[in-house]
Each structure stands twice: as C-alpha cells, then as structure tokens.
Amino acid sequence: MSAAPRPDTSPRIEPFRLRGANFNLLVLRLLDPRPEAVVPAIGDQFRRAPGFLRFAPVVLGLGDLDMPPGQVDFAGLIEGLRGLEIVPIGTTGGTPEMRNAAMAFGLPPIRSVGGKESEEAPPIAAPAPAAAPEPAAPPPPAPGMARPTMIVDQPVRAGQRVWAQGGDLIVTGTVNAGAEVIADGNIHVYGALRGRAIAGGGDRADARIFAQNFDPELISIAGYYAVREGLGGAPIGKAVQVRLTGERMRFDPIG
After folding, report:
1. Which residue would you say has higher pLDDT here, 101 or 111?
2. At what angle do helices 74-83 and 35-47 cross, to 10 degrees?
3. What is the domain extent for residue 79?
4. 105 with 42, same domain?
5. Tens digits of per-residue pLDDT, 152-197?
6. Same structural domain for residues 102 and 39?
7. For the purposes of burial, counting CB atoms within 10 Å of the CB of 91, is it exposed (0-12), middle (13-18) or buried (19 or more)?
C-alpha cells in the first residue's frame, strides 16, 4: 500500500506585486473631437517622422474641448489612432461627465503626479478598485543644487532610445537618424542631432535643446513638438538652441 503524499510545505512564490511608478507619456491635446479631422492630421504629421509614436501609449487631453460629452466620438478616435499604431490609454482634463463618457470606452482618467486637482478628479462613477499609491513627485532642486545629469559618450544609433529620468542629458557624439533621446530636463548634443530629441518631461516648459549640428527628425519640449518639415527658418546644420516662448518654439543660433 503506497504512502499518502506529503503536504507541500515549500514556500510559495508570490504570483505578482503591485508598485507605483512614473512614466514619460505624451498628451494628445484634442482641439477638435472629430476623428475625421484629428486622425488624418496626425497621420500626416507622423509620416514625416517615421517611427515616432509607433505603438507608443498616449493620453487624450480633453481640457480644450467645450461641448457636451455626447459630441466626442471616443470610439472613432480610438479606432483611428490604433489604425496609426498609436495606443490611447486614458484621458486627462475635461469635465467629470466627459471623463465618464471616455471611461465607457476603456479610457480611464490618468493622474499626473503633482498636477492640478481640477484636472485629476476622478469621474462621477462607481468607485474603482483600490490601486497602489502613486509615488510623490520629487521636490525641485534646492537653490545651488544642480539636477542630475546623464552623460552618453558614444553615438546614439538608429533604433536606440536614451532617457535621462529626472535630469539633463548630454550626448558627446551624434544622435543618428532613427534614434531617440529623452530628458526630463535639458538636452545637449555636442555632435549632430539627426534623430528625435524630446526635452522637458513633466511639463518643464523652461527646458531647452542644444545641438552643435542641428538637423533633427523631430524635436519636442514639454509636449510641444515639430517635425523636420515644420522647422521653418531654423538654421539647419548650424549650432542651435531650441526653447519655448509661450506655445511656440524658438530656434536661436549659438555663438
């Protein structure tokens, strides 16, 4: 007669863990709620910068829409954006009624760490399951203290993405076409900037982009961006600094 199996007394491995985290997300501010107006315009912009936002998560900004929630075609927007290989994951801003309407299509309100309460208040709906608490936003540097800086001593190759989280980024070589450099603060490129440069994460509108040889596919500061064809009179191939004045980008020669 075989012996009865012994009970398993080995320690169990946890199947999962929850933790809060900050992510660098782009907000697509909707100025027109019609998919037939928004989707073709976005497709035209992104075709000028191949690979930009491909399969990237984006948040729909509703704060500029002044209309009843029923006039916003969330289903059409989601379908159109996914057709461009852009992944809408939630919303920010807007009225509670509009956020409620977006929730019905699987777009929850996204909290911006350190953002305004009026933009982050949850929609008037059944309470959602409790989630892990968001980490507090890091305090601004004290007077006399510099932000942390990431230094990259090698060229950034096509397909690479470098992100200086919470500080500035210095690249001593070239950012090649198809590469992407991201910083929550400023970006300095002491070689040629031929790829994409995204500065001012977390809505830091005072951030700047400096390049010794300015020839980018795309640049962005605090969510405002311009592709290669939209750089206007920027001195291509020269030493340039890029900064925001209001909601417009300014391109100033260096030296």
Report:
1. 101
2. 20
3. 26-120
4. yes
5. 999 999 888 898 888 999 999 999 998 889 898 999 999 999 998 9
6. yes
7. buried
Q: Which CATH number do you get for residue 167?
A: 2.160.20.70
Mean pLDDT, the chain, rounded, equals: 78
The whole-angstrom separation of Cα 77 and Cα 75 is 6
Residues 225-238 have pLDDT tens digits of: 787 777 777 889 99
> Domain check: are 159 and 240 in the same one?
yes
Q: Which carries the bigger pLDDT value, residue 155 or residue 138? A: 155
Question: Environment class of residue 168 by beta-carbon count within 10 Å: exposed (0-12), middle (13-18) or buried (19+)?
Answer: buried
Residue 132 forms part of a structural domain: no
Structural domain total, the chain: 2
Q: What is the pLDDT of residues 242-254, one digit of tens each?
A: 999 887 888 999 8
Question: Would residue 51 count as lying in a domain?
Answer: yes
CA distances, 47 to each of 23, 34, 167, 176, 177 (Å): 25, 20, 30, 18, 15
Do 227 and 156 lie in one domain? The reply is yes
Q: Which residues contact 12 (CB under 8 A, 6 or more apart)?
A: none
